[in-house]
């Protein structure tokens, strides 16, 4: 095997943003290691420092940028403070829906206002009580996580009944596993019905180690896939991860990559003939769609990634963005309400000599997915490269280790 480049991917922002609110409520000190530091988690940390659990005379104002998890989790969590809290995002965040979450919180005894179903939201000084509610599962799993992180500390017991199929189920599963590690009990009936006791007490571990971010690791693995002579060791990435996006290892194995787990992480070695995934449902791994759409460009035949309608309300309309940018490579691509279809042509991409500029739509995942092509398409330019700070501030530094 060629020389293996080792990279320590930063801690998972998804895990970090779930654990941080729990730490605020801990009565015992706990040590947290490998915390994911990026824009989204920085917004969470700043917000939690502002939140007070003693009565304040003035409203607490919080800005969350375009951080979906931070915004949704804090909207629910703030109902525990008995203070007036105003949460506002940036221009894009203020168009992303939150009304189903605010309606649920109001049904559970809180008082939360939003004018247009998006941020800004105003959480009044009326503590959440708990109770029994129905909430749709087909809009955002972040709503469910926000409630699961909050209701164990409400006054009464609660029940969440999920209407319609739950999107991105692995993210809810991650939330439940993390809560269990902090001593919180939740009865889960097939991800359709959750029972949560109120007034629970957190029992934190003495030390909590945040796993490296699987979604971020997928971009480095994609580069290795395209360059068989440059295998990568992804430190602290293992198949038994609680992150749903660890499935990227399974997808890569199906595409012909060699995957080897070691004591310190996982090695990914690419292949000269990348196999198509064919028709694949990525409803449970939406953050991997960008990675595997790019890899699909290098396979022979058709790839259809479907059941991904939720991508249209992320940091950008990711389905539309992918279609627009992929066309710049001369690759045939078609999209619909909930799918993207690519007919790969590796020879065409390898023959590109003219400059190509990728518009990132201020979306970190669009930037990172196309960035893995930088030494395949020599005159490729990524607009607004700093947008990767949202989840992976050291991305360009790590990618350079693979491309140099």
Polypeptide structure, described:
This protein is an alpha/beta fold. It folds into 2 domains: 12-209, UDP-n-acetylglucosamine1-carboxyvinyl-transferase, Chain (Alpha-beta prism); 214-403, Enolpyruvate transferase domain (UDP-n-acetylglucosamine1-carboxyvinyl-transferase, Chain, Alpha-beta prism), CATH 3.65.10. The chain is 31% helix and 20% strand. It is built from 13 helices and 20 strands. It has a 4-stranded mixed beta sheet with strand order 1-12-14-13. A 4-stranded mixed beta sheet has the order 3-4-6-5, covered by helices on one side. Strand 17 and strand 18 form a beta hairpin. Helix 3 (68-77) packs parallel to helix 5 (141-150), helix 5 runs parallel beside helix 6 and helix 7 (214-226) runs parallel beside helix 9 (289-296). The longest helix is centred in the N-terminal third of the chain and has 13 residues, at 13-25. It is globular. The model has no long low-confidence stretch (mean pLDDT 96).
Q: Quick gist of this model?
A:
By secondary structure, this protein is an alpha/beta fold. Helix content is 31%, strand content 20%. The chain has 2 domains: 12-209, Enolpyruvate transferase domain (UDP-n-acetylglucosamine1-carboxyvinyl-transferase, Chain); 214-403, UDP-n-acetylglucosamine1-carboxyvinyl-transferase, Chain.
């Amino acid at each position: 095997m060629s020389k293996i480049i080792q990279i320590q991917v930063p801690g998972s922002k998804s895990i970090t943003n779930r654990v941080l609110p729990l730490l605020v409520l801990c009565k015992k000190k706990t040590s947290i290691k490998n915390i994911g530091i990026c824009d989204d988690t920085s917004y969470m940390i700043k917000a939690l420092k502002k939140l007070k659990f003693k009565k304040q005379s003035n409203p607490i104002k919080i800005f969350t940028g375009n951080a979906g998890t931070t915004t949704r989790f804090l909207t629910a969590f703030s109902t525990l403070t008995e203070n007036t809290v105003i949460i506002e995002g940036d221009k894009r965040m203020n168009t992303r829906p939150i009304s189903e979450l605010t309606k649920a919180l109001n049904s559970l005894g809180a008082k939360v206002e939003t004018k247009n179903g998006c941020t800004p939201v105003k959480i009044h000084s009326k503590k959440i009580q708990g109770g029994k509610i129905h909430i749709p599962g087909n809009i955002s799993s972040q709503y469910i996580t926000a409630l699961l992180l909050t209701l164990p500390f409400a006054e009464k017991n609660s029940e969440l009944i999920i209407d319609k199929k739950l999107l991105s189920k692995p993210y809810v599963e991650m939330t439940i596993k993390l809560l269990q590690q902090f001593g919180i009990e939740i009865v889960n009936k097939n991800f359709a019905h959750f029972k949560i006791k109120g007034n629970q007490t957190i029992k934190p571990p003495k030390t909590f180690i945040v796993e490296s971010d699987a979604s971020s690791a997928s971009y480095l693995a994609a580069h290795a896939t395209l360059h068989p002579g440059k295998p990568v060791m992804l430190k602290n990435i293992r198949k038994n991860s609680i992150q749903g996006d660890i499935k990227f290892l399974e997808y890569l194995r199906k595409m012909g990559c060699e995957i080897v787990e070691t004591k310190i992480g996982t090695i990914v070695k690419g292949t000269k003939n990348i196999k198509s995934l064919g028709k694949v449902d990525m409803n449970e791994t939406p953050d991997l769609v960008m990675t595997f759409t790019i890899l699909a460009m290098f396979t022979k035949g058709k790839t259809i990634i479907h059941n991904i309608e939720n991508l249209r309300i992320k940091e950008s309309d990711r389905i539309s963005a992918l279609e627009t940018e992929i066309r710049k490579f001369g690759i045939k691509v078609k999209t619909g309400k909930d799918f993207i279809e690519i007919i790969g042509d590796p020879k065409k991409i390898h023959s590109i000599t003219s400059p190509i500029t990728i518009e990132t739509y201020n979306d970190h995942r669009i930037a990172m997915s196309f960035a893995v092509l930088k030494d395949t398409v020599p005159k490729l330019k990524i607009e607004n490269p700093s947008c990767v700070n949202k989840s992976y501030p050291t991305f360009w530094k790590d990618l350079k280790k693979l491309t140099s």
